[in-house]
Design goal:
four-stranded mixed beta sheet
């Protein structure tokens, strides 16, 4: 059949909204929200070795190891954030045998209001460095990157750089999959996240199972690699499209952060935070989780890979491996026709 021609579609101009802004949302591989036994769990397991390799061998990628502490409050069970972090905050999570140095913290090490805690070594990504690095790896390996306007998934067939029709389309459109013609997956919706980027360094990454400020608010602290600053979060507001930062929420985020981690400002409070900027991102949630499957749409083979919610980075390499298998199977099926 010769060399296969593929078109991959990501961000689309089919709805005006601000999606997840890569400058501000540092992602941690094993801030795991994947349920035990799920496909997403396997994608995380398959992704960890590559992110660990990058942290060890490729500092230019913007990935580094960080000591991580997870605080659990029993009263957060059942809340929106508590459900989001249900696996993460367990004393015996599935990922305990995946990440290095996992341990349960002794009771005397717990701050007031915390019922249990674990610690381990994870990774944090400075996405402002990582995404351009990924693009450069694609370019180095012969991938052509171009802009276009697509209103129906099959439009992408005509966008192949050769001028010929693509043999297969990869659909990686995130939230846009809700309205993209030929896909129109109405189970896709946003979960709004708001963060504050500061210059202060906490010395450790932290996450808490919930807050006393609202069912859909969260507390997490992530120090990004290579001078990328520290991300303070956050929120998990399902179905909310608002793209502008809420100043009241921002103040609550900062106060929670310095309360749980006084080292951020050497005990000097919110006033000593050195704020770089505020930001909002819309996580692409899907009711049934990640969609990784192939489909023939109007005689065009499509491999879908979307619905990664707030864990796209930490499932990325595992998802890509599955997508490669699906592409191979779809092209083999196409060759029979």
């Amino acid at each position: 059949m010769g060399r296969s021609q593929l078109s991959a579609v990501s961000t689309l101009s089919i709805r005006k909204y601000k999606g997840k802004d890569p400058r501000f949302r540092a992602h941690v591989l094993i801030y795991s929200v994947a349920a035990k036994g799920s496909n997403a769990m396997q994608y995380e397991i398959d992704t960890w070795p590559e992110l660990a390799r990058l942290a060890t061998e490729s500092p230019e990628a913007g990935v580094h190891f960080q000591d991580t502490v997870i605080y659990n409050r029993d009263k957060d069970v059942g809340s929106s954030t508590g459900q989001w972090f249900a696996e993460l905050t367990k004393r015996d999570p599935w990922f305990k045998d995946t990440v290095p140095n996992f341990k349960i913290l002794p009771e005397e090490a717990l701050p007031a209001g915390v019922d249990s805690a674990t610690s381990f070594t994870s990774v944090c990504i400075n996405t402002a460095l990582y995404l351009p690095w990924l693009a450069s790896q694609c370019l180095k390996n012969g991938v052509l990157i171009k802009r276009g306007i697509v209103t129906h998934i099959t439009d992408a067939v005509k966008l192949h750089h050769s001028g010929n029709k693509a043999h297969l389309v990869l659909n990686c459109t995130g939230l846009s999959s809700a309205n993209l013609g030929g896909v129109e997956d109405k189970t896709v919706f946003p979960a709004r996240g708001q963060v504050v980027l500061v210059r202060n360094e906490p010395g450790v990454m932290l996450d808490v199972s919930g807050t006393d400020d609202g069912d859909d608010e969260a507390t997490y602290i992530m120090q990004r690699a290579a001078g990328g600053g520290t991300v303070l979060g956050g929120s998990f507001q399902k179905g909310v499209w608002e793209s502008q930062p809420d100043p009241n929420l921002a103040m609550r985020i900062m106060k929670r952060s310095v309360d749980i981690c006084p080292a951020l400002t050497d005990g000097k409070g919110v006033e000593a935070l050195s704020v770089v900027r505020h930001a909002v991102g819309l996580r692409p949630l899907r009711t049934d989780g990640i969609r990784l499957e192939s489909e023939n749409i109007d005689d065009t083979w499509v491999v879908h890979s979307y619905g990664h919610a707030g864990y796209g980075y930490q499932t990325s390499y595992g998802s890509a491996q599955m997508a490669v298998k699906l592409v191979g199977a779809a092209l083999a099926e196409r060759a029979k026709l």
